[in-house]
Amino acid sequence: MPNEIVAPVIQVGKTYKTGDTEITALQASSMDLKAGELTLIIGPSGSAKTTFIITFGLCDLSIFW
Ligand SMILES: Nc1ncnc2c1ncn2[C@@H]1O[C@H](COP(=O)(O)OP(=O)(O)OP(=O)(O)O)[C@@H](O)[C@H]1O
Ligand SMILES: [Mg+2]
User: Fold this and answer.
1) Which of 51, 55, 58 best tests ligand 1's pocket when mutated (most atoms within 8 Å of CB)?
2) pLDDT tens per residue, the chain (65 residues)?
């Protein structure tokens, strides 16, 4: 059904820990993925696009360009 929410993403967070260093890349990020819509995640390098996609279990197609 068009505009049906097929994947609600609610309050996703991710903190990377490397030794004593912690980097919170995502903090309480939410969005809705809807049927029949093309959703793009855009932003500057380091803004956590890949982190968001991996954390949510999607495929990061930016590896192709
Ligand atoms: N495996 C990791 N370990 C530690 N820090 C990480 C790791 N992966 C990403 N980060 C950090 O998380 C933040 C977001 O990185 P991410 O790769 O998700 O950004 P991006 O928007 O996909 O960047 P780009 O456009 O360069 O691909 C950055 O500060 C990055 O240094
Ligand atoms: Mg990336």
Assistant:
1) 51
2) 667 877 777 788 899 999 999 999 999 888 888 888 888 889 999 999 999 888 877 666 776 66
